[in-house]
Amino acid sequence: MILIVGGSGTLGKILASRLLGAGHAVRVMSRTPSKVAAVRAEGADVVKGDLLDPDSLVRACQGADVVVTAAHSILGRGPNASAHVDGAGQCRLIDAAKAGGVRRFVYVSVHEPDPAYRRVPFFRIKHGVEQYLHKSGLAWTILRPTAFMDLHAHVLIGEPIIKKGKVVLFGRGSQPRNFVAASDVAEIAFHSLTEPSFVGQTIDIGGPENLSSNEVVGIYEHRTGRRAQVTHAPIVLPRVMSVLLRPLHPGLSQIMQTAVLAETVNQAFDAGPLSERFGMRLMSLDEWVSRRLEHDRTAAAAPS
């Protein structure tokens, strides 16, 4: 039995479907089981659980051979703040997995393109959980993906262009960074869960291109056939907002910190060795956008 924690997220849903399609027994833990109705229909065992609830973690791990956790709370606040969920919560999950006799633990962390990212609490917390896992005695694998196309390219840049024909970018939008498709991360996660050779390895995962925000805009303009109105907000704006928001909403504060780093730090990633190692063609953003727009058109045309 493979337990997926964070099964209602983009990566969790794709990975669950991939595993079920290959004939694996899958259990999905979610705070809101109704959000994973699709994978339940595919044959997954769905359990209600929360990284803040130790008893629910013990129950979820019972009978599981492998645990993969892709849950996070970068935007959380109060009791759901990153320190409680991404930090203490993930460590409690590791403890529950060890106590429950889990054989392997796969942790989805985050790629650090530069040491400056360790100034962001979310990245420090993720690093701390990696260290905790190293010392746990579990057979572990750590995956560190770059920015998901699904969120950082589509939701933050592409969707405003599609819906409103305009988008706001912080800074000049000229700093290249790496985007990866969640489906490619899921495929690599699939191998890391099912092949013994990945035990004890930390794998950085990225896409085949390093693109600036301006280039992302250009891809959406090409695929939608519409010219976008682009506003470049001064980079000082997220700098100031990160400080002002810190006592009010630490989640938004660290998002602003990350936005600054995205436009001021080199984030290039060479995916050639990764592609060769796994024998897979990594998806370009242009292909991802084309598929997403076709999916949306098909969904809109389907009878209600």
Task: List its traits.
304 residues; alpha/beta; Rossmann fold; three-stranded mixed beta sheet; 12 strands
CATH superfamily descriptor of the domain at 2-147 and 180-208 and 268-282: NAD(P)-binding Rossmann-like Domain
Backbone structural class:
alpha/beta
Write the H/E string, N to C.
EHEHEHEHEHEEHEEHEEHEHHHH
Q: What is the overall silhouette?
A: globular
Q: What is the share of helical residues?
A: 40-55%
What's the arrangement of strands in the largest beta sheet?
A: 3-2-1-4-5-6-10
Q: Beta fraction of the residues?
A: 15-25%
Mean pLDDT score, rounded?
93
Biggest sheet layout: 7 strands, parallel
Q: What is the CA-CA span between the terminal residues?
A: 36 Å
**What Rg, in angstroms, do the CA atoms define?**
19 Å
Subunit arrangement of the protein: single chain
Uncertain parts: none
CATH topology group of the domain at 2-147 and 180-208 and 268-282: Rossmann fold
CATH class of the domain at 2-147 and 180-208 and 268-282 reads Alpha Beta
Tell me the total number of β-strands: 12
